Every structure is written in C-alpha cells, then in structure tokens.
C-alpha cells in the first residue's frame, strides 16, 4: 500500500493536485513512522491497529479530496488490501470490526457524493472528462493484482505449512512409537525382577530334586544286590506290586489326607495281626502306598522289611523328585514362553488374528510374583475373544491395566478380568478392589504425564499410551472408580485392524 501511496502521490502532483497529493505521501510517511515506533517499542498490537486504521481511512480521505467516489475512480478500493491482509494475522472479531468501519466509510462516501460539492471540478476541462474512467481502471487493476499477489503468498505459505505439518506429524508418530516402546521396555524392566524371582522357585526345586536323586540312586544301587540274593518269590511279587503303586502316584496328599490314609491302613494292618500297625502304616504312606493288598502282607511280615522299606523309600523319592523336576521344568518353560511372547509377539507391530484371552493369560503369568502375594484372580472369558488387531500394541494396554490394578490393591485383593464378545465388538473389563481413583483425577488420568502415583512409581504415560492405542483401533476405554472398586472397560471392534493406519494394516 505504501507503493500505491507513492504512485498516487506522483499522479496527483502531475495533475497539479498538490494539496491532494499530501494524503498518499502522508500515508507513506505515517507508515514509516509507525514501523520505526514498532521497532523501538516492540508493541505490535498498537502498531498493528494504527496501521490498519490509517490504511482504511486515508484512501477514503484521498477519494473525498479528489471529488468523491466517481471522480476518484473509487480510490477506496485500496482499503480492501488492508482488510484482506488483516485476516491473516488478526482475530476474526477484530477483522469484523474493521470491516464494519470500512462499510461505514463507504456509506459516508455515498452521502458525500450526493450532498457535498466536490473540492475540485474535474469536468471543467474536457480533457479530464475521461479521467475518472482511467482512475477507476488503474485502481481496479492495481488492487486486483495486489490481492492476487497476497493470495498467492498465502497459498505458498499454506503449502509450506502443510509440508511442515506432514513432517511434524511424522516426527510426532515416531516420538509416539518411541514412547510406546520406552513404556514397554519400562514394563519389561519391572517384570524382569518378578520373573527372575518366579524362576528361582522351580530352579531351586530342580536343584534340590537332583541332589535327592543322587542320594536315592546311591541307596538303590547299594541295596539291590543284598535284596536280590535272599528274597523269595512272594517278597519279590509284593515288592514289584508296591513299586508299581509308587510309580502311579502323581498327586501330593494334604496333611489331613495323609492322616486319614494312615489311620485307615493302620486299621487294616491291625486286622491282619500286625502289632506295629501304626508304624508300618506311617511307612507305607511315606513311600506312597495308598491301598493294602494281600500280596503286600508277606513283604511286611518279612524279617528283612527294614531293607525292603529302605529300597522302597529310595524308589519313592526317585519318583517324587522326577515328578518335581517335570513340574518345575514345565512351570519355568511356561514363564519363559510368556515373557518371550510378550517381548516378541512375532508380528512386529503388524495386525494379526489372535485371542485377547490368551494375551490376558500371558500378562497374568508374567505378574505371578505379585499375584501370589495375596491376589485372587477371577477370570471369565465368554465367547470368541479372537480379533484382528495389532496385538503387540494391545498387550501394552493389558499390561498397563493389570499392573495398575495390582498396585492399587497393593497386591492384596480380588482382580476380576472379563472378556465378552458380540457379533461386532469385544468387551474387556479389568476390575480391582483397590483404593480407587480420586474423583478430581478421573477426568485427567488419560492425560500424558499425569499420574496419581508417588514420585518414582509412575511416568504418567501408561494410561495415555493405552488410550491412544485403543482409539487407533477404533475402540473406547472407560473408567468407573470408587473406593474398593475400580473398573477399566475396553471396547474394541472385532475388525479393529480396519481402523489402523494403512501402513500398519498391510502386515
């Protein structure tokens, strides 16, 4: 507009309109002073309002000094440049106010056109009769070209901002993935200590059982020759039957069951004339004999029963320790498999069809070290829990919710996990009997970095990341909390993969 002011000032001077030329030249001067004021004070708001005011008002003043709307060729069109540009940085309410100011000045111009005689009479000279047409053409073209240039600049800025927005979104997605991975690694870090402790129990059982096996084998190897040299056929038959009974024992008896079995065997032995029935019943229970047969009686009456009992006890110990090793190895394998499945689900972040129920069982297995302190698990999986989704990401959700529930209960209470399905949705609820979430915190628990835990216990990212993962799957996560009962409910579409970004679903 300052360029337009210089142009108009020169045109007015050429036409010997020296007084009128002061207005466009004055606009250039006021603009320069205003910019100097802005550079000195940094008061952008004041400088902006001054510039908009003079940019709208002075074209109208110049128009009035040239004789009105028609005589000046609608010089007021130059004010449109200011209105167009002001919308790019000013608030919309302010822009509307300046538009109203422009409309009022337009009506004032219309009033002057009919009520007040022009200060100069351009129609005295026949050569100047066509001047208004020239002026209007020049104003129309100049302002139109200027507006076109402004719009071009704005479009270039918009395109540049769109490119930057795409880059920022990519950076945000990468940062989000990094946060998810970081949170997952933090969760794995918490799990490792518990899993290591959980593995120590079966590994310790395996070591102890191995030592017992060594002792039992030594007893068997040293006692077999003596047993075979003098044993008669009836003793060997009874011994073989007892060994078969010992090998078939796979269930550990409780103290009450042992006492009941011992009393029952003692009564039977007493009926068969054994004076030491209680002692022999205790020995039979120890080696794993649960029922007394007639083939056992010769062995029990034999003078060499102490040697036979020593061998049977060694065989029984051998059997029990083998079962212990088998059970401990299976438990260790299950824990390691659960951890491996959690850390490396095998789909590398892509979608797959898998059971949410199995994923929940995996998470519960990993937290056995905390659960066995005093948590009772109530699980109910109704219907088909298999959905098409990014299960690597969903595992992070289940881990966060289960871990939060255990912490809220201080590992002492009831944890209820339910999964139900309909034709198009899967519902997963995780309920705990912990302290609950304060009412003023419920509305903020899904905000990043907001946490109700003590300093050092939480990052404030777990629930935020969980909510984002659920939303990306087209689902909803809700919370209902009161002291003694907190329920997180996750609703997921059966075909959750269709809501994921295309690059994810391609897997």
Question: What is the typical, i.e. mean, pLDDT?
Answer: 77
Major beta sheet, strand line-up:
2-4-5-7-6
Please report the number of helical segments: 17
Question: SSE order in H/E notation?
Answer: HHHHHHHHHHHEHHEEHEEHHEEH
Strand content: 5-15%
Number of strands: 7
Largest sheet: 5 strands, mixed
> Helix coverage percent of residues?
55-70%
Q: Name the poorly predicted regions.
A: 503-507
Inertia-based shape: rod-shaped
Structural class: alpha+beta
Distance between the termini: 57 Å
Our Rg estimate from Cα atoms comes to 46 Å
What can you tell me about this protein's structure?
The chain is 65% helix and 10% strand. It is of the alpha+beta class and 507 residues long. The strands form 2 sheets. A 5-stranded mixed beta sheet has the order 2-4-5-7-6, with helices on one face. The longest helix has 100 residues, at 131-230.
Question: What topology does this entry show?
Answer:
Elements: H1 2-14, H2 18-41, H3 44-65, H4 78-86, H5 92-115, H6 131-230, H7 233-248, H8 255-271, H9 277-287, H10 297-301, H11 305-343, E1 352-355, H12 356-366, H13 368-371, E2 375-382, E3 386-389, H14 391-408, E4 413-421, E5 425-432, H15 439-442, H16 462-472, E6 476-482, E7 485-493, H17 502-505
Parallel strand pairs: 2-4
Antiparallel strand pairs: 1-3, 4-5, 5-7, 6-7
Helix pairs in contact: 1-2, 2-3, 3-4, 3-5, 4-6, 6-11, 6-14, 7-11, 8-9, 11-12, 12-14, 14-16
């Amino acid at each position: 507009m300052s360029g337009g002011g210089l142009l108009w000032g020169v045109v007015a001077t050429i036409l010997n309109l020296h007084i009128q030329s002061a207005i466009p030249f004055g606009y250039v001067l006021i603009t320069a002073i205003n910019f100097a004021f802005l550079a000195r004070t940094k008061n952008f708001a004041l400088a902006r309002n001054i510039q908009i005011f003079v940019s709208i008002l002075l074209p109208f003043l110049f128009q009035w000094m040239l004789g009105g709307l028609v005589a000046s060729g609608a010089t007021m069109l130059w004010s449109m440049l200011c209105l167009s540009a002001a919308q790019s940085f000013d608030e919309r309410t302010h822009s509307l106010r300046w538009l109203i100011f422009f409309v009022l000045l337009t009506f004032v111009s219309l009033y002057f056109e009919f009520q007040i005689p022009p200060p100069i009479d351009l129609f005295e000279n026949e050569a100047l009769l066509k001047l208004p047409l020239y002026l209007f053409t020049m104003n129309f073209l100049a302002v139109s070209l200027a507006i076109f240039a402004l719009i071009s600049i704005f479009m270039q800025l918009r395109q540049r901002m769109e490119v930057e927005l795409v880059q920022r979104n990519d950076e945000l997605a990468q940062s989000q993935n990094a946060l998810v991975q970081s949170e997952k690694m933090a969760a794995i870090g918490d799990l490792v200590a518990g899993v290591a402790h959980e593995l120590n129990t079966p590994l310790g059982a395996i070591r102890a059982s191995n030592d017992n096996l060594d002792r039992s084998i030594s007893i068997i190897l040293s006692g077999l020759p003596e047993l075979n040299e003098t044993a008669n056929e009836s003793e060997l038959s009874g011994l073989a039957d007892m060994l078969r009974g010992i090998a078939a024992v796979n269930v550990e008896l409780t103290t009450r069951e042992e006492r009941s079995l011992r009393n029952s065997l003692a009564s039977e032995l007493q009926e068969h004339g054994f004076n030491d029935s209680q002692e022999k019943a205790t020995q039979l229970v120890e080696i794993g004999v649960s029922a007394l047969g007639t083939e056992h009686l010769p062995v029990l009456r034999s003078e060499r029963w102490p040697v036979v009992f020593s061998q049977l006890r060694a065989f029984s110990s051998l059997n029990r320790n083998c079962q212990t090793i088998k059970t401990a190895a299976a438990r260790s394998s299950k824990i390691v498999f659960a951890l491996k499945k959690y850390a490396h689900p095998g789909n590398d972040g892509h979608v797959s069809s898998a059971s949410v129920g199995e994923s929940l069982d995996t998470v519960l297995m990993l937290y056995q070290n905390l659960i066995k302190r005093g948590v009772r698990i109530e699980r109910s999986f109704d219907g088909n829990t298999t959905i098409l989704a990014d299960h690597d990401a969903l595992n992070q959700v289940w881990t966060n919710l289960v871990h939060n529930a255990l912490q809220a209960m201080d590992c002492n209470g009831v944890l209820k996990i339910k999964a139900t399905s309909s034709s198009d949705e899967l519902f997963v609820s995780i309920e705990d009997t912990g302290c609950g979430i304060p009412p003023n915190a419920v509305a903020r628990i899904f905000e990043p970095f907001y946490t109700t835990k003590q300093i050092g216990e939480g990052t404030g990212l777990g629930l935020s990341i969980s909510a984002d993962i659920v939303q990306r799957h087209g689902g909803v996560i809700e919370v209902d909390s009161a002291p003694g009962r907190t329920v997180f409910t996750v609703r997921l579409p059966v075909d959750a993969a269709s809501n994921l970004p295309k690059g994810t679903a391609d897997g």
